[in-house]
Design a protein that fits this description.
The protein is an all-alpha fold. The protein contains seven helices and no strands.
């Protein structure tokens, strides 16, 4: 589990195109905070884990869903789809089915 958490944080950080230093700074920590997590020296506390999820705009469930390499992008897409009318959602669903073929 420790390795999954480290790898997932790294994956999310790289997907967003930010450095370990920048993520540490954005979360309000010292320069090496994320490096210590990535290198396996430590894990985030539970409260810090929730801050990390919030930072990447994903839920804890999305964090642990390893079926998606970019849960942040998926979460954004779902939020946008939820704001559509039923008719527009059906159009999007039809398009997705067509693309999958």
């Amino acid at each position: 589990m420790d390795e999954f958490v480290r790898n997932r944080i790294t994956q999310l950080r790289i997907n967003r195109g930010i450095s370990e230093y920048q993520l540490s700074y954005d979360l309000g920590h010292s320069r090496g905070y994320i490096n210590n997590i990535s290198s396996g020296k430590t894990l985030p506390s539970m409260s810090e884990f929730f801050y990390i999820c919030e930072y990447f705009q994903i839920t804890p469930a999305e964090f642990f869903d390893n079926n998606h390499s970019n849960p942040e992008l998926l979460s954004k897409a779902i939020k946008e789809i939820k704001s559509l009318s039923d008719e527009d959602m059906l159009l999007i669903l039809t398009l997705i089915k067509r693309i999958k073929k």
